[in-house]
Design brief:
The protein has 252 residues and is of the alpha/beta class. It contains 8 helices and 7 strands; from the N terminus they run βαβαβαβαβαβαααβ.
């Protein structure tokens, strides 16, 4: 059990990459708080973890709101006694379109969900990790922040911010044994894919995306979960500030 006696929070844990991470972590012994804006989805994932013999808690969380993030961390600590691992996975896509076609409200929401959430997670999770004397953050960024695709300018920028925040947090928190790393997934078969394709998920569009990935397939929740598992585990206790591409060669 690589995460035995660890307490983890996974935002956006009700579907996609977050669900994969939550279930993989639970299978490796972690106690998991599944946080999601969709409470029913979080409850489903937490219930499946519990049915499989693990320990999990479902939490309704809006990662863009301070009060909600504070309640998420407080609820996890109250239930499980502390916090060791913070997975900032919840994200908002941008519908593929020319850069001038994104309205201000959508821009603000993209940055609130994808960037401000990292700030809020730090505000409430770091004090709890300090009580433990160590901790691990994993921020789910994107290949969009490394090798941007056209039509996704504002999303690309938000994920670039996540990458920079990860490195800056890592440097500042390293003396306290709080590690901060990021994963850069390539597109996967998740609910976000349709938005990245401009609102139309066709076989032709899928083939176009896959043609840019040398290994020749989309990413899966398990791909991301396996990488997150390593970075969250004590096996990676000398690794911080890394932004790991999990992309089948897309960024080469």
């Amino acid at each position: 059990m690589r995460l035995a006696n660890k307490v983890a929070v996974v935002t956006g844990g009700g579907s996609g990459f977050g669900e994969g991470i939550a279930k993989r972590f639970a299978a490796e012994g972690a106690t998991v708080a599944v946080a999601d804006l969709n409470l029913a989805a979080a409850e489903r994932v937490a219930g499946e973890i519990t049915s499989a013999g693990g320990q999990a808690l479902a939490l309704h969380t809006d990662v863009s709101l301070a009060a909600s993030m504070q309640a998420m961390v407080a609820g996890t600590v109250a239930k499980f006694g502390g916090l060791d691992i913070m997975i900032n996975n919840a994200g908002m896509p941008q519908r593929n379109a020319p850069l001038l076609n994104t309205d201000e409200a959508t821009f603000d929401k993209i940055f609130a969900v994808n960037v401000k959430s990292i700030y809020l997670a730090a505000m409430y999770a770091v004090p709890e990790m300090r009580k433990r004397g160590r901790g691990a953050f994993i921020n789910i960024a994107s290949t969009a922040g490394v090798r941007p695709r056209p039509g996704l300018v504002w999303y690309n920028g938000s994920k670039g911010a996540v990458i920079t925040l990860t490195r800056a947090m890592a440097v500042e928190l390293a003396p306290e044994q709080i590690r901060v790393n990021a994963l850069n997934p390539v597109a996967g078969l998740t609910p976000m894919l349709k938005e990245f394709m401009g609102g139309e998920e066709t076989d032709e569009m899928k083939a176009k995306f896959v043609s840019t990935i040398p290994i020749g397939r989309f990413s899966t929740p398990r791909d991301i979960a396996n990488a997150a598992l390593y970075l969250a585990s004590d096996e990676a206790d000398f690794i911080t500030g890394v932004c790991m591409e999990v992309d089948g060669g897309r960024c080469i």
